[in-house]
C-alpha cells in the first residue's frame, strides 16, 4: 500500500505530456510551407519548373504594361549554363517598380496588389514570381537579380535578393543604382535547375499560345540553342482597361458576410449593403432587410450570427441585377480571329464571344475560336488551347472544365469524328478563353479550371455556336470537293467526247473541244462576312467560281 501511494503521488507531480507536445508546436511560414510543397505551385519537375519561371515573369510584365497603358514588348532569353542548370532573363518595357517595393514583390510570398481587387488580371494570389525566386534559391543557392526603372528622370535600381523562408521576408544581398538604357521597365534574372525540351508543354509552346491570345504583344524569344523567334503584335490596340467592382451579394457566404459586418465603417445596415456590394441601391437594400426581417437602421456591429444568416436568406429572396461587366476585358471575336490567323496556318477561322454570365457572384465571359484545315494534322485529336485571363494553361488538361465541355459536345454534326464522350478527331484547333474577375483554378499552380455548372454551360453554348458555322463550312467543302472530282473526271474524257461529237455532228473538233472546256468550271471556297447585327456577327459561306459567274452545278 505505501508503494502504491508513493507511485500515485509521483505521477501527480510529473508534467502532463501535453505540455511537452506544446513545446514542439510553432507557427509555419508560408515560404517554409511552399519550400516543402513546391509541387503545389507547379515546380514539381525540371521541365515544368522552367516553364513556370518564365510564365510567372511574363504574366507580371503583361499585367503591369496593360495597367500602365503601354503596348507590351517582352524579351525572354534562356541560357544553358551546364547540365540541368539554366539562366532565365526576362526584360520588359513596362512601368517599372518603385524601389521600396522591389524586395517585397520578388522575395515575399503572398504579397501583391490583386488579391483584394475584383477585376480581370493574370495574377491573383501574389505567389507566382516570388515562388520562382524561391525555387531558384532552393535549387542553385543563387539570388535573383532584379533591375527596374520607373522613369528616365530617375535612376535604375539593381537588387540581388533571396528569401528568408523561416520568416517569409526578403534578404537583400546587394542594392545599388546602375546605368540602364531603358527609360522604364523591369529585368529579372534567375539561375535555376531545369530542363529544356521542346513540345506541347514547353516554354516555346507557352510563348506561341501567349502570342495567339495577346495579339497586342510583341515577344522576342531566344532559346538555349541561340535560336531567336519574334512574335510580332497583330494590333496596336490595347485591351480595354478593366475597372474594379465590389462583390455581388449573390456570391457572398456567411463567414465572409460576418467579416464584412465586423470591419465596415458604415453606421447602418442599409448603408452597409449599398457601400459594400455592387448592384445594391437604397431601395434594394431596404428590400433585403424586409425579407430578412431586420430593421434597415440596425448597426452592423450589432448583427449576430443568426441575424447574419437571416440577412443572407434575405439576399437570396431579393431580385438583384447581375454584376457589371466593365471589370472584364475579353479579347473580342475580331482580335481572337486575328491571333489565330497570325500563328496557325489553316483555311477557315471562326471566333465567337458570349455575353457575360455569373458564377458565385463573379462575372465571366467565355470566348471560343476555331481554325480548320490547312496545315493542321488531319487524323489526330483536335488541338485544344485553353486560356484564362489571356494566360495559356498547358498542364492538367483532363482535369479542366474546358476539356470536359469539349468532350461532352457532339462534334459529328459539325464534320468531325468522335467516339462517345471524347476529344474530336480532325484538322481543327479549338481555343477556349475565360475572362473573369476571379478564375476558379483547381490549385495554386493555376493549370485547370473548376467544374462549375455555369461555366460548363457557357462553354458548351459557345462551342455549339462555332460548331454550327464550322459544320456549314465542312459540308460545303465536301460538296465542292465532289464537284471538283466530277469536273476532273469530265476533263479527263473531254478529248474522247470531242472526237465522237465531231464525227456525229460533222463539226470541227477544236471548236467542240473549246466549247466543252468553257463548260468546265471548278469552284473555290471563300469566306465573307455578309451580315452583321447589334449582337453578333453572322457568317455565311459563299462559294464563287474562278470566273466570278453565278454559282451553278458543275457539268
Summed up, what is this model?
The protein is an alpha+beta fold. The chain has 15 helices and 16 strands. Helix 4 (46-67) runs antiparallel to helix 6, helix 7 (203-213) packs antiparallel against helix 12 (333-343) and helix 10 (282-292) packs across helix 11.
Mean pLDDT: 83
Which shape, going by the Cα principal axes?
globular
Helix content: 25-40%
Domain module tally: 4
Query: Which CATH C-level class of the largest domain is it?
Result: Alpha Beta
Number of strands: 16
Tell me the CATH topology of the largest domain. Answer: Heat Shock Protein 90
Structural class: alpha+beta
Please name the fourth-level CATH homologous superfamily of the largest domain: Histidine kinase-like ATPase, C-terminal domain
User: What is the second-level CATH architecture of the largest domain?
Assistant: 2-Layer Sandwich
Biggest sheet descriptor = 8 strands, mixed
Unreliable segments of 5+ consecutive residues: 525-555
- End-to-end distance, in Å? 119 Å
Sequence of strands across the biggest β-sheet: 5-4-3-6-2-1-7-8
Radius of gyration: 31 Å
Strand percentage: 15-25%
List the total number of helices.
15
List the helices and strands and how they pair.
Elements: H1 2-13, H2 17-24, H3 30-36, H4 46-67, E1 73-82, E2 85-92, H5 102-107, H6 128-140, E3 144-149, E4 156-164, E5 169-178, E6 185-193, H7 203-213, E7 218-222, E8 228-231, H8 254-263, H9 269-276, H10 282-292, H11 305-317, H12 333-343, E9 348-353, E10 357-359, E11 362-372, E12 383-388, E13 391-393, H13 401-408, E14 428-436, H14 453-505, H15 509-519, E15 523-532, E16 537-545
Parallel strand pairs: 1-7, 12-14
Antiparallel strand pairs: 1-2, 2-6, 3-4, 3-6, 4-5, 7-8, 9-11, 10-11, 11-14, 12-13, 15-16
Helix pairs in contact: 4-6, 7-12, 9-10, 10-11, 13-14, 14-15
Amino acid at each position: 500500500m505505501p508503494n502504491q501511494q508513493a507511485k500515485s503521488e509521483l505521477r501527480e507531480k510529473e508534467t502532463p505530456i501535453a505540455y511537452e507536445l506544446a513545446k514542439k508546436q510553432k507557427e509555419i511560414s508560408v515560404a517554409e510551407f511552399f519550400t516543402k510543397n513546391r509541387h503545389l505551385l507547379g515546380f514539381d519537375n525540371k521541365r515544368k519548373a522552367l516553364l513556370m519561371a518564365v510564365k510567372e515573369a511574363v504574366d507580371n510584365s503583361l499585367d503591369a504594361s496593360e495597367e500602365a497603358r503601354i503596348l507590351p514588348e517582352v524579351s525572354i532569353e534562356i541560357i544553358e549554363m551546364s547540365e540541368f542548370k539554366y539562366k532565365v532573363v526576362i526584360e520588359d518595357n513596362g512601368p517599372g517598380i518603385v524601389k521600396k517595393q522591389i524586395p517585397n514583390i520578388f522575395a515575399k510570398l503572398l504579397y501583391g496588389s490583386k488579391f483584394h481587387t475584383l477585376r480581370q488580371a493574370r495574377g491573383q494570389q501574389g505567389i507566382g514570381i516570388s515562388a520562382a525566386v524561391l525555387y531558384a534559391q532552393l535549387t542553385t543557392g543563387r539570388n535573383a537579380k532584379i533591375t527596374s526603372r520607373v522613369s528616365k528622370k530617375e535612376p535604375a535600381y539593381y537588387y540581388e535578393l533571396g528569401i528568408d523562408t523561416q520568416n517569409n521576408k526578403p534578404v537583400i544581398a546587394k542594392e545599388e543604382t546602375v546605368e540602364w538604357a531603358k527609360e522604364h521597365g523591369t529585368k529579372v534574372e534567375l539561375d535555376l535547375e531545369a530542363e529544356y525540351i521542346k513540345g506541347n508543354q514547353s516554354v516555346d509552346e507557352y510563348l506561341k499560345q501567349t502570342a495567339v491570345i495577346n495579339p497586342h504583344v510583341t515577344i522576342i524569344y531566344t532559346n538555349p540553342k541561340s535560336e531567336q523567334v519574334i512574335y510580332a503584335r497583330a494590333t496596336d490596340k490595347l485591351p480595354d482597361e478593366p475597372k474594379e467592382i465590389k462583390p455581388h451579394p449573390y456570391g457572398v457566404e456567411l463567414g465572409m458576410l460576418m467579416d464584412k459586418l465586423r470591419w465596415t465603417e458604415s453606421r447602418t445596415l442599409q448603408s452597409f449593403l449599398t457601400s459594400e456590394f455592387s448592384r445594391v441601391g437604397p431601395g434594394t437594400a431596404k428590400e433585403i432587410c424586409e425579407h430578412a426581417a431586420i430593421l434597415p437602421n440596425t448597426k452592423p456591429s450589432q448583427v449576430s450570427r443568426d441575424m447574419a444568416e437571416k440577412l443572407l436568406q434575405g439576399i437570396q429572396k431579393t431580385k438583384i441585377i447581375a454584376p457589371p461587366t466593365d471589370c472584364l476585358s475579353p479579347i473580342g471575336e475580331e482580335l481572337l480571329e486575328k491571333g489565330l490567323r497570325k500563328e496557325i496556318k489553316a483555311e477557315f477561322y471562326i471566333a465567337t464571344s458570349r455575353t457575360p454570365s455569373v458564377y458565385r457572384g463573379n462575372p465571366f465571359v467565355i470566348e471560343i475560336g476555331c481554325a480548320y484545315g490547312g496545315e493542321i494534322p488531319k487524323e489526330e485529336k483536335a488541338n485544344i488551347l485553353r486560356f484564362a485571363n489571356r494566360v495559356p494553361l498547358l498542364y492538367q488538361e483532363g482535369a479542366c472544365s474546358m476539356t470536359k465541355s469539349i468532350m461532352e459536345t457532339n462534334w459529328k454534326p459539325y464534320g468531325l469524328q468522335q467516339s462517345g464522350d471524347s476529344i474530336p478527331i480532325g484538322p481543327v484547333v479549338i481555343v477556349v478563353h475565360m475572362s473573369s474577375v476571379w478564375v476558379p483554378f483547381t490549385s495554386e499552380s493555376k493549370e485547370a479550371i473548376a467544374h462549375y455548372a455555369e461555366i460548363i454551360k457557357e462553354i458548351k453554348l459557345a462551342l455549339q455556336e462555332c460548331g454550327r458555322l464550322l459544320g456549314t463550312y465542312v459540308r460545303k467543302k465536301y460538296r465542292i470537293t465532289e464537284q471538283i472530282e466530277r469536273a476532273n473526271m469530265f476533263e479527263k474524257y473531254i478529248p474522247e467526247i470531242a472526237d465522237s461529237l465531231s464525227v456525229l455532228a460533222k463539226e470541227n473538233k477544236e471548236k467542240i473541244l473549246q466549247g466543252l472546256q468553257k463548260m468546265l468550271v471548278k469552284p473555290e471556297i471563300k469566306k465573307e462576312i455578309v451580315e452583321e447585327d447589334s449582337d453578333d456577327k453572322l457568317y455565311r459561306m459563299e462559294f464563287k467560281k474562278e470566273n466570278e459567274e453565278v454559282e451553278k452545278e458543275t457539268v
